[in-house]
């Protein structure tokens, strides 16, 4: 998990660096080089998204625990799993009423709302970043077009 986080951080840093180099190449007039760098950025973005998706899948896999009850006259182990939304321990194969009570409980509902809000914020952030990068690429292309026009006039 930590290795995935460092890889994501490294990818984000590499994307920023390549975008800066792309802007510099575009301002100098190296359109082909800037376009090649844009392809690199797209490939790194796809890798970043696949890492994020794999990270989410790994975190949502269920883990089953054996928990011994602290009741002196009952000496049995219960199979339990962690709720993927709120992190509470749930007894495996428990009655439906208990499962329903958990799913409608304040803690579970609260965590679900928080997770949804975080997901929406991340989507908005990614959308803003993508628009910003597209705007930057369009500005580079416009500058390049102006330079070519100036060269043809001269």
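Sequence proposed for the structure above (154 residues):
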């Amino acid at each position: 998990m930590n290795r995935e986080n460092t890889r994501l951080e490294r990818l984000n840093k590499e994307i920023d660096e390549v975008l800066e180099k792309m802007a510099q190449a575009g301002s100098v007039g190296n359109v082909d080089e800037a376009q090649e760098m844009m392809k690199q950025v797209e490939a790194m973005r796809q890798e970043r998204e696949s890492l994020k998706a794999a990270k989410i899948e790994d975190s949502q896999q269920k883990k089953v625990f054996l928990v011994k009850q602290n009741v002196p006259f009952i000496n049995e182990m219960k199979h339990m799993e962690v709720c993927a939304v709120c992190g509470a321990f749930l007894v495996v194969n428990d009655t439906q009423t208990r499962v329903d009570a958990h799913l409608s409980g304040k803690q579970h509902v609260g965590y679900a709302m928080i997770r949804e809000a975080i997901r929406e914020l991340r989507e908005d952030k990614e959308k803003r970043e993508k628009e910003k990068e597209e705007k930057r690429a369009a500005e580079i292309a416009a500058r390049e077009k102006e330079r070519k026009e100036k060269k043809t006039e001269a």
